[in-house]
Design brief:
Order of helices and strands: HHHHHHHHHHHH
Subcellular location: Cell membrane
Distance between the termini: 39 Å
Protein name: YgaZ protein
Main location: membrane
Structural class: mainly alpha
Pfam family, one: AzlC
Number of domains: 2
Membrane topology: Multi-pass membrane protein
Shape: globular
Length: 227
C-alpha cells in the first residue's frame, strides 16, 4: 500500500541537489532586501514558488508599485493553473482536504514527476496516485523551507564565490528539458526564451509577462494546427 509513496520519495530526492542552493539563494536575497526572518520564512512557506518569489523580491527592491509586484508574481505563477487542470483527471476524485493539500504542495518538481509517472502507471487508482504525489513532496517541501531558513540566517556570510544563482536556471532546465516532446512545446520554449531576452528593456520585468503570453499563443496555435 505504500509502494507509490516510497517511489515518490525516491523520485523526489534528486531535486534536493537543486532545491538547496535555490532556497539558500532566496533566503540570502530576502535578507539583503530588508526582510526579517519571519517575513522571509512566511514568504517561502506560503508562496512556495521560487521563480515568483525572486520576481517579487526584485521588483520590491526596485521600488515598483505594489500592484505591479502582485501582478508579476501572479503572472509567473499562472502555470500552476495549467498544472492543476492537468492533475484533475488523476486526483480530481480525491476528498476536498486531500485536494487542498495537493494544491498547496503543487510546485514544478512535484507536478513534473507526478504527471510523467501517472502516464506510465495507468494501473494506479486515485489513492495510489495521491500517495505518490505526497511522496514526491516529502523531500521537496522541507528542503525548500529549510534551505530558505539557512540562507536567511547565514545571510551575507555566504561567499559570493559560491555563485548560488546557478541553481535558478538549472532547476527549470532540469524540469523543462524532458518535457519538450512536441513541436508546440519546443516552439513555446523558444519564443518564451527569445522574448524574455528581447524584451528585457521593459521596466519591472513586464517583458516576462509579454514573452509568456506570446509563447502560450504560439504553442496553442501549433497544437491546434496539429489536431
Amino acid at each position: 500500500m505504500r509502494s507509490g509513496f516510497n517511489q515518490g520519495i525516491r523520485d523526489g530526492m534528486p531535486f534536493v541537489v537543486i532545491m538547496v542552493p535555490f532556497g539558500v539563494l532566496f533566503g540570502v536575497l530576502a535578507t539583503e532586501a530588508g526582510l526579517d526572518l519571519a517575513q522571509t520564512m512566511a514568504f517561502s512557506s506560503l508562496v512556495i514558488a521560487g521563480a515568483s518569489q525572486l520576481t517579487a523580491l526584485q521588483l520590491m527592491e526596485q521600488g515598483a508599485p505594489t500592484a505591479i509586484v502582485i501582478l508579476s508574481a501572479l503572472a509567473v505563477n499562472l502555470r500552476m493553473v495549467m498544472y492543476s487542470a492537468s492533475m484533475v483527471p488523476h486526483v480530481g476524485k480525491a476528498g476536498p482536504g486531500t485536494r487542498g493539500l495537493i494544491s498547496y504542495l503543487l510546485v514544478d518538481q512535484t507536478y513534473a514527476l507526478s504527471v510523467e509517472t501517472y502516464e506510465r502507471r495507468s494501473d494506479w487508482d486515485v489513492a495510489e496516485k495521491v500517495r505518490y504525489f505526497l511522496g514526491t513532496a516529502l523531500p521537496v517541501f522541507p528542503c525548500w523551507v529549510g534551505s530558505t531558513l539557512a540562507g536567511a540566517v547565514l545571510g551575507t556570510r555566504i561567499p559570493d564565490a559560491w555563485s548560488l544563482d546557478f541553481a535558478v536556471p538549472l532547476a527549470f532546465l532540469a524540469l523543462v528539458g524532458p518535457m519538450l516532446k512536441t513541436r508546440a512545446h519546443v516552439a513555446a520554449a523558444f519564443v518564451s526564451a527569445a522574448g524574455a531576452m528581447a524584451l528585457a528593456w521593459i521596466p519591472w520585468n513586464l517583458g516576462l509577462i509579454v514573452a509568456a503570453m506570446a509563447a502560450m499563443a504560439v504553442g496553442a496555435e501549433l497544437e491546434r494546427r496539429a489536431e
